[in-house]
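Cast an eye over this sequence plus tokens and explain the fold to me:
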Amino acid sequence: QPVDIQNAGDERLFVVEKAGHIRIIQNGALLGTDFANLTDRVTAGGGNAETGLLGLAFHPDYQNNGYFYVNYTTSKPAGTPLRTRISRFSVSSANPNLADLSSELVLMEYSQPFSNHNGGQLQFGPDGYLYISSGDGGDAGDPQGNGQKLTVLLGKILRIDVDNNGGGAPDCSTATGANYRIP
């Protein structure tokens, strides 16, 4: 079940599938081998669940550093609560059509109280920051009110500096009338 499609700045299209596969379409044909198979890490529920591999973004300097980012839900190892994980991976140094799955660097992880409303979109802005749609954490009508709570990551668009260029974000936490917060 495809949920996203991205381009790495070349002729390839990368198709993100909910179950945990990233596939490549090149020259109009689907390649026979996955770019990445994350099914051993991803929890993708059936039915109406909005879980799984939900987003993909390529670093603005992907052609040089080979970094790409994914948003997926997981409850692994078995018995652990459902969480969203934002991770960075690298492309294989030997094959541009394969990810190096051993390169995973988890950037952030946060709990998901329900199996729906989990967001998932990732996008780099013109400022070089990675923007993450966190979703409100679920169930009909956002019963926990996460979208309105400034101290909760759910129900927000998160912005992170994946290059850690320093300088930090502006201190907006005490701005008068602010409708946002930087925890």
Q: What stands out?
A: The chain has a mean pLDDT of 87. The first strand starts at residue 2 and ends at 7. The domain at 2-160 is CATH 2.120.10.30 (Neuraminidase). The helical segments are 62-65.
